[in-house]
Amino acid sequence: MPYVSYIEFNVPATAPAAAFYKQAFGWDPQGWGDDENYLISSHGDEPGIDTALQTAPDGKPPAIPIITVPDLDTSIASVKKAGGTITVERFAIEGMGYAAYFTDPSGLTLGIYQNDANAK
User: Fold this and answer.
1) What gap in Å lies between CA 67 and CA 59, rounded to an integer?
2) Among residues 73, 75, 77, 83, which one has the least CA distance to residue 108?
3) 91 and 53 in a common domain
4) Is residue 63 situated within a structural domain?
5) Same structural domain for residues 45 and 75?
6) Are 69 and 116 in contact (CB under 8 A)?
7) What distance lies between CA 56 and its chain's CA centroid?
8) Is the dihedral of CA 17, 61, 117, 37 positive or negative?
9) How far, in Å, CA of 57 to CA of 38, rounded?
């Protein structure tokens, strides 16, 4: 069954946000590869989901839940059939998987993601 696997916080700048979450909650956001504008704070062995901090100058939407699905293309079709709108078409996250973003009929922005270590 698809599930919320992580969330992206859109912030004006990642460094101050990382410092805040580290001081407030002990999180340790690390850059994704060489990208210091996309930081991941893993939940480790504790319950919860990973949190990403990403640069979004306008700060909107402030947070994007990401739903992991078994098949991205099937989920994109289901979103459309149910009345959602794909706002960012399918794209690869090299070596990780594929993703897309959509809005539901109420205007809420979410992401969908399919694991695929062969993604290019």
Assistant:
1) 21
2) 83
3) no
4) no
5) no
6) no
7) 13
8) negative
9) 13
